[in-house]
Design brief:
With 239 residues, this protein is α/β, with parallel strands linked by helices. The protein folds into two domains: 2-116, no CATH class; 121-235, Rossmann fold (3-Layer(aba) Sandwich), CATH 3.40.50. It is 51% helix and 15% strand. It is built from 13 helices and eight strands. The longest helix is centred in the last third of the chain and has 17 residues, at 182-198. It starts with a strand and ends with a helix.
């Protein structure tokens, strides 16, 4: 299957290894991966901040950078969910409306694509560790992803996955929310980390590096012996 790779801007700038690991997974699942180096942001930051005209300009570029007829896969439920759910609102009654509808139907978060589209769940990974899984708000509510990451992790040899309390509660990042409401954001991150620590986990795993970046910052500040990992990084362990 031909797949277009969408690498969100913060992944490109801060966590490029995750993008390369996603390519490894897709190729192992017999996909032909293409990457357009001209791609930039999906437009979500401007949209969430209320600057819809600016967001529309960025999103128009996104529509030009990707084919609306081919599958697009991203290592971020947040970005995939934004394209899937809000592009049609931005381009309603415009000349790009039908293209926005088409592209919104063809974009997937990585675990959703691997499990539900390809039926691929075992990548032969191994990781001797205890971990807990964090459900990002976007994965749950915008991509309807819940069991897919857990199914993939269940096939990682040696990995013990333990559920934390209030697993579906927001970690406190929320993009610009973390900047505008810093004290609330930190308190929510603290609660999430405390729940993770209570499981005895060594790692917090998620589909969204934005959440993990927020949590790792709090963890580092407190000096806890806890690390965060993106799902893609786990699924290529010990190949």
């Amino acid at each position: 299957m031909k797949v277009q790779l969408f690498v969100p801007c913060f992944v490109d700038q801060l966590f490029p290894e995750t993008a390369f690991n996603m390519i490894k997974l897709l190729e192992k699942a017999n996909c032909k991966v293409s990457y357009n180096p001209a791609q930039t942001c999906c437009g979500q930051p401007a949209f969430n901040a209320g600057f819809w005209d600016d967001a529309r300009e960025v999103c128009t570029k996104f529509l030009k950078d990707f084919s609306s007829t081919d599958i697009i896969v991203a290592p971020s439920a947040s970005c995939a969910g934004f394209v899937r759910n809000y592009f049609t609102k931005l381009f309603d009654n415009s000349s790009l409306h039908h293209e926005a509808i088409a592209i919104s139907k063809n974009i997937y978060e990585l675990s959703d694509f691997l499990v539900n589209r390809l039926g691929y769940t075992d990548f032969g990974a191994s990781m001797e560790a205890k971990a807990t899984y964090h459900d990002s708000c976007a994965a749950l509510r915008e991509c309807k992803t819940k069991n897919e990451p857990r199914l993939l992790l269940s096939h990682v040899k040696g990995l013990e996955l333990k559920e934390m309390d209030d697993v579906e509660t927001c970690c406190g990042f929320g993009g610009t929310f973390a900047v505008k409401f810093n004290s609330i954001s930190v308190a929510m991150g603290e609660q999430k980390v405390d729940h993770a620590l209570a499981t005895g986990a060594e790692y917090i795993i998620s589909t969204d590096l934005s959440c993990l970046m927020h949590l790792q910052g709090y963890i580092n500040n407190k000096g806890y012996n806890l690390k965060t990992m993106h799902l893609a990084d786990v699924l290529v362990k010990e190949w």
